[in-house]
Structure formats: structure tokens, C-alpha cells
Amino acid sequence: MNRPSPLPIARTADALRETVRGWRRQGLTVSFVPTMGALHEGHLTLVREAGRRADRVVASVFVNPTQFAAHEDLGTYPRREAEDAELLAAAGCQLLFVPTVEEMYPDGFTTSVSVGGPSQGLETDFRPHFFGGVAVVVAKLLNQVQADVAVFGEKDYQQLLVVRRLARDLDIPTEIVGSPTERDGHGLALSSRNAYLSDDDLARARRLNGVLAEAAVKAADRRPLAAVERAAYAELLKAGFERVDYVAVRRAEDLAVFANGVMDAPARILAAAWLGKTRLIDNMAV
Amino acid sequence: MNRPSPLPIARTADALRETVRGWRRQGLTVSFVPTMGALHEGHLTLVREAGRRADRVVASVFVNPTQFAAHEDLGTYPRREAEDAELLAAAGCQLLFVPTVEEMYPDGFTTSVSVGGPSQGLETDFRPHFFGGVAVVVAKLLNQVQADVAVFGEKDYQQLLVVRRLARDLDIPTEIVGSPTERDGHGLALSSRNAYLSDDDLARARRLNGVLAEAAVKAADRRPLAAVERAAYAELLKAGFERVDYVAVRRAEDLAVFANGVMDAPARILAAAWLGKTRLIDNMAV
Fold first, then answer.
1. Which end of chain A, C or N, has fewer beta carbons within 10 A?
2. In this complex, do A111 and B173 lie within 8 Å of one another by their Cβ atoms?
């Protein structure tokens, strides 16, 4: 039996704009949370933050094909619109935007965006097309919604910096706000991809944040960063991660490498590591 | 003696946005004409068209360094703000936006945009960085002004198609309108670069539109396009152009090459040719 959707769903940019325009005419402010669906408490925190910052909250669910490589999990990425809509409504969202791939990338679509700066290295070393896909879809979504504020999770810290740079460089008139990472009782960053993990893998995954926290203490203690990173890398393998893409301490502001090899400005430690076919990322302030 | 400006000038995006926001609060619609200054009747036609399409007209004057190559005429491109402001006011413009290079490209600016599609070939074969520079500055300007409509000249026909594709692909909520080319009494397309021409060169320049018109008749007659283009190329050299970058008949919609070598859809003929150090472009519907 089909349940009625607990909140209005716009499936085209035109329908979305019509609703937002109506709100604007009433003098209401608007905030926006873009997601790929399969929502968990982390997303709902973003929605509640968006609700504190504006009169009306729009969320989008779009599994963007251009940010997945051919070998990645586009086909199996979890999709569950009805449950997502209920969670969003309960968290204070007033409109769900669920465009089709054809709506976002019609025939003849050819534009690409490269943000440079914070998009270089880290994720890009392992997912070279990722931020290009993110930049285009976020530019589109921000321009479609025309919100006053958009909220992105610090869980994807490099993405947050890329989006902030994108919006600033292209003068997209939406303020980009970062919201702290939600974690489970063991400190594991909430992620839709955690659903892929077996119980054994889940136990291993929960070591990731601890290893980063220990390394952050050493980095803050001005130990040589190469050694700190090397030790954290070894710790992750010891904890049962089968492969570590990177563990890195970078300048928090722009993810630049510390030229002197020690931390001499506010920093962020970031990592990506694998358990079976599941790639987990995490990061925290140092 | 400094004359007072005949219309308000915004030198920052914030000042621009404040004025536009005030108009929006009064329920007024807004149109926009981006220029590089050195205004002539062609620009003023765009401003008048913009005035017919909205309650308030914003024009910008910004000689965008990123669309000039190192050997091009960035340094000598004519600049005359006071005269431009008077012409704009008389043509019905209510606000002039004149950002500095630092305002548009602050330290740390790293984003680039590639439109693909209609930006391929023709101008790009000879000015490879041109449309990349245009795409970024137009995306910025459109997002800064947030107009309902922006008017671009058909004189730069390839640019018009690139901007239209850019706005569509990135969902920039401004309608892109093309306006027909203004010509002098001899059919020469008006251009700020005509100011560089000697009287002798001017006489030669005035042959450009005639050669294109003759070639257009042959193309419309379904003659083989390779031969039509070759003949026009020779005619331009005979008319005194020292070098011809291209003469090409392309599909009007997207500048695609006619695969069958004859015109079988609405077409545009486009050319770029040199007189001394001055490069002239022109185009017309076939």
C-alpha cells in the first residue's frame, strides 16, 4: 500500500522554484540541505541546523552519477525515498526535491567545473573525478534552490571546503555552513555506507576515530607530521583496515600541506580507509 | 573638473546586491547587460532591449583579464568610464557595476569552468583560453546581479551560445537573450576594436559583411560548404584582410559542423579576420 508522502516532493527544478518563489513572496527565508538520500541521524542534524537558520527548509535527494567512477557503488548506493521523506518531515523539512538524472543532465549537457585549491590531493588522489562531479551538481542545486543558507556536513570536510570555495568564486548567493559530524556511541562517524558493514567490520570501523584522535594529540604536540601520519597509517592496518588511502594532517583553512612538516596553524586530520568493499572517511579538528 | 556621474556606480558586488535587493523589495524586475566598456551604439541597443524587458537595467563594465591571452590587447583595450556612464544613462540604464580585478578575482581564486559543446572550435581554435575566461566571468556576473534577463549581442554569436549553455547547464536563473548586431551604414558590425582601424583599414573592414552575405546565399542554395567557405576565404584575402582565422557555415543551434557537407538545418556563417594588429569577427544568419 502506498502511503501519502509526509511532505511535498518537487521532481523538477520548475516545481521547486515555484514553491520557493511563493515563500519569498511571503518574505520567508529559505535554507537547503543537499543529500544523496539513505538518511541517518547525521543528515537530520543538518536539517535541524537548517531549520534554525531559516523559516523554510528544502532538502534534496539526488544520487549524482557524475561523482561516482565506473567501479564505484552508484548502482548499489541505498535508495529509500519514502523513509527519507518521513525522516525529513519529522526533522522540520518543508519541501523535498528529488530530480531525475534526466532533469539534472538533459541531452546536450556539456559544462564542467574545476574548483582547484582545496579540491587538490586527498580524496582527489583516489577519486580523481569526484570533486568535478560534486562541483557541477552543487552549483546546479544551489542555483535551483536559491536558498539563503545551505548546510553541509563536516563529515565530508574536503567537500565542505570545495563547496565553500565554489560558492565564493562563482558568487553563488547562498551562505555555506558546515555542521559537526554526528557519531555513534563508539565515535564512528555516521555514514550511509556504514549500512554495508558486517558486525565484525563495524567493530573495526569504530577504531578509525580513535586512531585519528590519538594522532591529532601528537600533531598538536608539534611532533613531525610525517611520523605522526605514518604511525596512524600503521595503527589503522593493525586495527583491521585492509587498505588505507590516506591519513593526513593539513591546514584546516584550505587543506594545504604544512611546509615545515609540523603543525603551525589550525589543522584538520583526515583519513580514508577500506573494510572489504566499503570505503570509510573521517576527519576531526586537531 | 570632475563631472558627477550621471548614474549610480557600484564598485563591489555587495553594493550592487544592495541596490538590486531594494528594487526587488519594490517588486521591480531587473535586466542586465555585461560589457567591457568603450561603449558604442551596439551596446546601447542591448541596453535599450534590456529596458524593454524589465523595470530596471544594470550594466557592467569589466575588462576581464582572464579572457585575454598574454599577447592580446588587454593593456590597450579602450577604457573611458565617464563617457560610458553618460551613454548608459541616456540609453535607460539605472545602475553601472564597475568591479575591480581584485573584487572579481581575490587571492585564492581557483575555480574554472569549461562549457564544452558550442565553445569547441572557431574562436577556441585561435583563442584557446577565451571561453574559459568568459564562462567564469559571466557565471560570476550573472550570480552577482541576479537579473531576470541578461542581454548579449549576436555580434559575438559563439559567445552567446556558450553563455546560453552555461546558464542552462548550471541552472543560473537568468534568461539569456540575444540581440541582433548593429552595423554602420556600410554594414560593418560595430565593435570597440573598430577604433583601432585606420581609414584605409576601415574601407577594407567594410567588405567583411558583404563577403559573408554572398557566401550565405550560396550556402542556402545547398552548394558544398567546403567550396563556399574556401571561396569566402579567398575573397577576404582579396578584399585586403591580411589573415583569415576562419570562415565557417555551422548549424545555428549549436555550431555543429554539417556532417553531410551541405546545409540541411538553419545555419550561421561566422568569420574572424585580421587587418594589421586588429582582429575583427562577424556572423549572420544563413
1. N
2. no
Buried-exposed string A11-26: b where 16+ CB fall within 10 A, e elsewhere: eebeebbebbeebeee
Mutate to test the interface with B, among A32, A143, A172 (most CBs of B within 10 A): A143
What ipTM did this prediction achieve?
0.94
| Domains of chain A: residue spans and CATH | 9-179 (3.40.50.620), 192-285 (3.30.1300.10)
Taking the CA of residue A66 and the nearest CA in chain B, the distance in Å comes to 14
Average pLDDT over residues A169-178: 98
- Active-site residue, selected from the candidate residues A43, A71, A129, A186: A43
Residue B108 φ then ψ, to 5°: 90, 0
CA atoms within 13 A on the CB side of A254: 12
Which residue out of B43, B71, B129, B186 is catalytically annotated?
B43
B43 part of the active site: yes
Best residue in A18, A104, A113 to probe B by mutation, most B CBs within 10 Å? A113
Given a contact cutoff of 8 angstroms between Cβ atoms, the answer to whether A96 and A7 are in contact is yes
Q: Does A115 touch chain B (CB under 8 A)?
A: yes
Instruction: Give me chain A's average pLDDT, please.
Output: 96
B111: nearest CA in chain A?
A115
A106 to chain B: closest CA residue: B169
Nearest-angstrom CA–CA distance, A155 and A171:
25
Cα-based angle B1, B4, B10 (whole degrees, multiple of 5): 130
Residues 149-178 of A with CB under 8 A from B: 165-166, 169-173
Confidence of residue A179 (pLDDT cuts 50, 70, 90): very high
pLDDT at B109 over 70: yes
pLDDT tens profile B83-93: 999 999 999 99
Q: What is the tens place of the pLDDT at every residue in A22-42?
A: 999 999 999 999 999 999 999
Q: For residue A110, give the nearest of B108, B140, B165 by CB distance.
A: B165
Average pLDDT, chain B: 96
- Across the interface, of A110, A139, A169, the residue whose CB is closest to B115 is A110
